[in-house]
Amino acid sequence: MIKRNSSPPLCKMLLLSILIVVQLGFSQDNVDQDWIFKNSKTLSELWELDEEHHRGTFLITSYKPIYFTLAKFSTDTNKFPISEERNNVLPEPVDLNVVEAKFQLSMKTKVFYKVLWGKADVWAAYSQRAYWQIYNKELSRPFRETNYEPEIILNFPVNFDVLGFKGKMLGAAFIHESNGRSNPISRSWNRLAFHAGFDRGPLQIMLKNWIRLGGSNDDNPQISDYIGRGEAKVTYDWGRQRFYAIVRHSLKFGNKSRGSIQLNYTFPIIKNFSGHIQVFDGYGESMIDYNHRQTTFGLGVSLIN
């Protein structure tokens, strides 16, 4: 029989502490105007798309948001992960807590500047997400899942108008993502992705579509029908607050019309230290959950947006 864990006192104390800090952060809005929440970088700044913003090669800069979710609650924790390869299953369910911690690290660096007749830049990027059963004392607080995602990105700065937006970048990337585990819970895939970036004042839109490379005989052959074949990320800055949504879809209809939506809200606490609320619904909250649907609610802090 599977024991149902409840949220321990430590979790409740952390949640209460975050709420108190959030309130203090909002209450100081009119106290100190000498610092500005640095969350309104344009695509030109983030990807150094012109001479004004070029910083050189092999300098480490941020890529995806860097955050630490102190408590993330799932409506349906995946205690018995399974893939289409029915032999790849655990012998029995794992007694996981419904509340865990999560963090994401991400960075990039420009490797080559003005290649392909001076028209493009080449970047290398690395992201990592970890799901930590920090409140699960019975299992010695293990890391439930860690996802590794290195990328090689070819980026073309552009400048054109479309539907009131300014097209700023086009490009392609080779993306590998895996959880670094062995069977029966090994998950991995390779993708060739194509992207386009647009902005309009405080609003940014990144569109991405990918083709899966290989994978007909692996541990997750139908991953594209769950996690998706395309992604749209919309970011909006409102003063010192930021809203962003990430939507993925399989680009299929009928019973294969699947995907996910992730909603994020960050708000200033002190300088570049921000509060972070995240809501996720759908498939693929992590690699091990690629074919498992759930809704999660997370509360934590963000260091780099």
Automatic annotation (TrEMBL):
- Quickly give the catalysed reaction: a 1,2-diacyl-sn-glycero-3-phosphocholine + H2O = a 1-acyl-sn-glycero-3-phosphocholine + a fatty acid + H(+); a 1,2-diacyl-sn-glycero-3-phosphocholine + H2O = a 2-acyl-sn-glycero-3-phosphocholine + a fatty acid + H(+)
* EC numbers, comma separated: 3.1.1.32, 3.1.1.4
Q: Tell me the InterPro entries matching this sequence.
A: PLipase_A1 (IPR003187), PLipase_A1_sf (IPR036541)
Membrane topology reported for the UniProt record? Multi-pass membrane protein
The record's keywords, sorted A to Z, are: Calcium, Cell outer membrane, Hydrolase, Lipid degradation, Lipid metabolism, Membrane, Metal-binding, Signal, Transmembrane, Transmembrane beta strand
Q: Which cofactor does it need?
A: Ca(2+)
Asked whether the keyword Magnesium is assigned, the reply is no
- Main localization of the protein described in the UniProt heading: membrane
Where is the protein found, in the record's own terms?
A: Cell outer membrane
Statement: the UniProt record of this protein carries the keyword Signal: yes
So what family is this one in? Belongs to the phospholipase A1 family.
Q: Which PANTHER family match?
A: PHOSPHOLIPASE A1
Q: Which protein is depicted? A: Phosphatidylcholine 1-acylhydrolase
Its lineage reads: Bacteria, Pseudomonadati, Bacteroidota, Flavobacteriia, Flavobacteriales
